[in-house]
Amino acid sequence: MDDGTRAEADVPPGRGRLRGALNTVFVLVAVAGIGLSLWALVSDVLDLRTRAESRERIEEGCGGLVDPDRVLALNGGVDQVALSDRHHISTERTDSSCVVYRVGEPRSAYGRFSLDLTLYPANPDADEHQVDAEHEPFDYFTAEDRDDVTAAAQYTLPHPLGDGGLGEYDADTVTVRALCADGGGVSSVRAEVAALYDGPVTSGDRRELAALGRQAAERAAAEKGCRAEIPAVPSALPEPRTTLVAAAEAGGTCAWYGRHTAAHGQGELPDRALAAPAGKAGAHDSCLLAMSPEGTERIWPAYEKSHPDSADLDRMLTLRPLWMQTDTLVGDGTRGLRSSAVNRTPVLPGTAGSADGIWWASSVCDGRPALHLMQVSFPYDDILRDRLEPLFRAYVEDATTRRGCTGVTFPAASAFAGP
């Protein structure tokens, strides 16, 4: 008789146990899934909290001058950062900075981003900035090719942002300037931002750095009542390089040199050059010139013969390479300039002269003071003694003509005669 129940004989042996086991597995998987979902939710909340705390740190440490999200997004993006306790941006000081670090493993931090803010007072006499004019372009001890020290410089030259009116940049740093209208307490604002992380800076990050620098300069200028027209960030920022090329092939900021040697011959002058694009409105541009090992081997024996106490050829090739660098500075960057860290001879706008292997001339570019400098390594200055004056004149004439500068003051002939 059918009593409404299924006989145990209707269930195949073992299937009940299998079904129970499967149910248990399904329950465990469901519980695990819920747990993982909860953990993912908690993790997301923690990440959001970490990012919010990082944003607050950047906002406070950098004086509210830069967008924290853009700083966090650099180099692929991070959520957790720390700031140096020793640095804090304040528009109440002429110089201040902030440094942002990426937090890694416990008790470890890695460089990420820095902002240096400089406010130049309207009264030049109240400006206490001091800057050394001397350069050291080649790394004699750790250069990759000790047999060819002048093949590459240890720094890149300043590249103009657009025509240079916004500022300039190099391998990992961008400098933006806001030129203030007359009548306020500040002459100009300079915001310098740098990528501190390892590895090359991508073109995208370089443009982000430029945007952050512009943002910082604009916000700082507004806080100080500085009325300034700040150009937009250009779309293209050519990648700076350090490798020198044949001087005849260099254009840009070294184009003047190619024209000079084409007209007057090379002789003992440098056969290598490192140039950057030339911007007619730039506040700083440079041209680096150097002699190759082959060129040094060609000209050194004659000098060594007339100067028995000079270094031997091997030492010249490795520790005393022959080089020179020209620089033009326009505006407040001419303040507080000194010839070297040792003698610190003032290099003042409106003057001309020489000291410590540096020659300088002055002019006025678009109403702002300008200095034009040429540094020559020792004893290269002695080797080129008869060619220094026409070479420097060629450089200054090019730099001032390109910018439309007037009132050029040039060193006397005696400044090139040597000691």
Describe the structure.
The structure is a single chain. This protein is of the alpha+beta class and 419 residues long. It folds into two domains: 18-121 and 158-237, no CATH class; 128-155 and 240-416, no CATH class. It is built from eight helices and 17 strands. Strands 9, 10, 11, 12, 14, 15, 16 and 17 form an eight-stranded antiparallel sheet that branches. A seven-stranded antiparallel sheet has the order 1-2-3-8-7-6-5, with helices on one face. The chain has a two-stranded parallel sheet with strand order 4-13.
Summarize the main sheet: 8 strands, antiparallel
Structural class: alpha+beta
Uncertain stretches: 4-9, 42-46
Give the strand content: 15-25%
Shape: globular
Average residue-wise pLDDT: 89
Query: Tally of extended strands?
Result: 17
The Cα radius of gyration reads: 31 Å
Pattern of helices and strands: HHEEEEEEEEHEHEEHHEEEEEHHE
Beginning-to-end CA distance, first to last residue:
131 Å
Give the count of helical stretches.
8
Helix content: 25-40%
How many discrete domains?
Answer: 2
Characteristics of this structure?
2 domains; alpha+beta; seven-stranded antiparallel β-sheet; transmembrane; transmembrane helix; membrane
